[in-house]
Amino acid sequence: MLIPRYSIRWMLGIMTVCGLFFLVVSLGIRGHVWAAAIAIAVAGLVLAIVVQAVFFVVAYWAAIVAESMFPKRHHRSPFASHTPPPQLLPPDEPL
After folding, report:
1. Which of 35, 36, 47, 61 could form an S-S bond across to 27 if both were Cys, CB 3.0 to 4.6 Å?
2. 3-39 pLDDT, tens per residue?
3. How far apart are the first and last CA of the chain?
4. Cα–Cα dist 9/6, whole Å
5. How far is it, in rounded angstroms, from Cα 17 to Cα 12?
């Protein structure tokens, strides 16, 4: 599905939450310490998520570059062979 489906209820809920958050931010700007603390905590959480996303993208890019620079090696078990191991007891046929 290419177009995400949002209901009016979800959009009104998101707008309400954003409105309340920015009300708290405006109270923090006006000098209420508790509101400033909540706004700073939310901003710190958003900043932490963004930094983790940036680090993931950098690590992903480094893995792609490293994969293209070095040849692929096929790792196999030293105990594996091209045939299955011999069976000590033959399987019983069901009646």
Report:
1. 35
2. 677 788 888 999 999 999 999 999 999 999 999 999 9
3. 51
4. 8
5. 9
C-alpha to C-alpha distance for 15 and 2, rounded to whole angstroms: 24
Chain centre to alpha carbon of residue 52: 9
pTM value surpassing 0.90: no
Question: In this structure, what token pair is assigned to residue 23?
Answer: 């009300």
Query: Hey, what are 83's tokens?
Result: 């045939």
Quick one: tokens of 32?
């209420």
- 8-state DSSP, 79: T
Model pLDDT, residue 2: 65
Cβ–Cβ under 8 Å, residues 36 and 28: yes
DSSP H stretches of helix in 30-82: 33-69
